[in-house]
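Propose amino acids for all 513 sites.
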């Protein structure tokens, strides 16, 4: 009797143990967990009218009034969408007309239209207090036309004026002038020291967390090596994300030891744009790209994934040209971006599906008075990306890809997520086999729309309406709970009957005595 009792006590304990969800540990401060919001300082928000000399918000080639104060005023907008970092277009003093920030006049001053260094520090402080990191674009290849530096230093600090005519020539790419901008001579140790000191100056003064290194392919790898070493010696956890331009694939080898923390991938960007600009497009080419990145022994999560940037037409333009409804297409595109490896970089204006052609049309002043559909969607996706480490750190395996219906698996430690994107015009049914995903006693719980799929002997059946996506997490079948409840009830019945039996027996005994 005693042995039997012990067994009945143990059963519920064992069942509780098996139902506990495994807690996943998450390291702090790792860059692969970041989601970056990239904005053009002049085109985001005008928060200070005192710095508006010659501002004309109606002229796309003029300063439009955006500034540090304006960004500070809108920190909650960025934080509210779940971003963890803000990346700013260059903040350094520009020559006249340099609204975009890429015509640097002096690397040691802030652009007067953007505000003072004090205002910049205030912005970084506020961002940090809100849990946002701050990155700044550091354009080290050239200065603005007739910049202070160019007029003072001339031929010693700059390459001879020759516009790049053959972009396939590495010599021209490195030493030629891009769009008429004086090209800094990185062979000169004084130039190297100047740029590296400037980079360290802003880190020290403002406590920023990283640099975006634009036009990095026009600057020699050995300079970057020196730059990245110096910067990381000053702040170890400093993020350096290089934009090597559209030819980056061929240059990967040349720059592999330059010390960048992450790199833009334009080929991936091209495939992503063609898959998600319209419905019914396969995604196989995207996954083939990931295979390539992996086989080049690159850590996939270090890749900067993006749809938009200062150098290209807005992705919305592609959607409109394909006669699609941008908000629907953006949702699908973002579903992919936020569940794939790599660090998502979202260009300001994405949240309102802003349209635009080539520069400056792709850099319109942000409009905050618009609908919230994509803003809410971004917030939801960010939350999932923060909750599920498999989405940021997991392996990736393509399970299904046909004409716009895509299913892939992300796995990290004990967590498995299944992402299903129906970018087609029809309801889709996908059968996942037990070989693709262990279905025994399991179910897939939808985290985006609340869908559920119960594991059967032959695997899982996923059904998704047109334009619907779901992010599932593999979990033990809820059926186990019924077993648990039945067991608990049975034990209670057993004990109650047992005590009734004892009581009756005692009563009988007392009566007999
Ligand atoms: Ca202003
Ligand atoms: Ca200026
Ligand atoms: Ca150059």
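Proposal:
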């Amino acid at each position: 009797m005693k042995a039997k009792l012990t067994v009945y006590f143990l059963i519920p304990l064992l069942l509780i143990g098996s139902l506990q969800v495994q807690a996943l540990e998450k390291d702090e401060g790792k860059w692969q967990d970041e989601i970056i919001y990239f904005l053009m300082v002049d085109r985001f928000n005008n928060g200070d009218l005192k710095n508006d000399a010659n501002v004309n918000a109606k002229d796309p080639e003029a300063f439009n009034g955006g500034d540090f104060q304006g960004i500070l005023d809108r920190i909650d907008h960025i934080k509210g969408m779940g971003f963890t970092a803000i990346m700013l277009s260059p903040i350094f003093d520009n020559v006249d007309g340099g609204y975009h920030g890429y015509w640097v006049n002096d690397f040691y001053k802030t652009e007067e239209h953007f505000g003072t260094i004090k205002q910049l520090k205030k912005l970084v402080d506020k961002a940090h207090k809100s849990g946002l990191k701050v990155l700044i674009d550091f354009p080290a290849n050239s200065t603005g036309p007739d910049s202070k530096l160019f007029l003072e230093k001339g031929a010693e600090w700059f390459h001879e004026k020759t516009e790049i005519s053959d972009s396939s020539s590495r010599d021209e790419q490195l030493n030629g002038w891009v769009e008429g901008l004086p090209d800094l001579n990185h062979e000169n140790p004084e130039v190297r020291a100047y740029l590296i000191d400037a980079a360290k100056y802003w880190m020290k003064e403002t406590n920023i967390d990283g640099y975006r290194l634009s036009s990095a392919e026009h600057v020699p790898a050995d300079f970057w090596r020196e730059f990245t070493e110096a910067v990381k010696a000053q702040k170890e956890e400093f993020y350096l994300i290089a934009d090597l331009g559209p030819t980056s694939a061929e240059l990967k080898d040349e720059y592999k030891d330059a010390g960048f923390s992450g790199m833009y991938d334009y080929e991936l960007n091209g495939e992503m744009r063609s898959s998600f600009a319209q419905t019914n497009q396969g995604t196989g080419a995207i996954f083939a790209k990931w295979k390539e990145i992996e086989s080049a022994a690159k850590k996939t999560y270090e890749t900067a994934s993006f749809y938009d940037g200062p150098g290209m037409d807005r992705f919305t333009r592609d959607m409109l040209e394909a006669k699609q409804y941008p908000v629907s297409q953006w949702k699908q595109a973002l579903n992919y971006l936020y569940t794939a490896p790599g660090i998502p970089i979202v260009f300001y204006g994405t949240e309102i599906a802003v349209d635009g052609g080539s520069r400056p049309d792709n850099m319109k002043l942000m409009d905050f008075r618009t609908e919230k559909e994509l803003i809410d969607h971004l917030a939801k996706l960010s939350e999932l990306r923060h909750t599920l480490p498999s989405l940021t750190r997991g392996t990736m395996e393509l399970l299904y890809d046909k004409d716009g219906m895509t299913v892939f698996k992300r796995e990290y430690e004990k967590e498995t997520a299944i992402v299903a994107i129906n970018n087609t015009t029809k309801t889709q049914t996908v059968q996942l086999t037990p070989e693709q995903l262990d279905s025994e006693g399991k179910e897939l719980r939808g985290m985006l729309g609340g869908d559920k799929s119960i594991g059967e002997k032959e695997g899982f059946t996923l059904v998704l309406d047109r334009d619907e996506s779901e992010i599932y997490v593999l979990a033990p079948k809820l059926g186990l709970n019924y077993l648990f409840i039945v067991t608990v009830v049975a034990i209670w019945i057993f004990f109650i009957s047992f005590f009734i039996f004892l009581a009756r027996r005692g009563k009988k005994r007392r009566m007999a005595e």
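The chain has two domains: 31-393, 396-478. The domain at 31-393 is CATH 3.20.20.80 (TIM Barrel).
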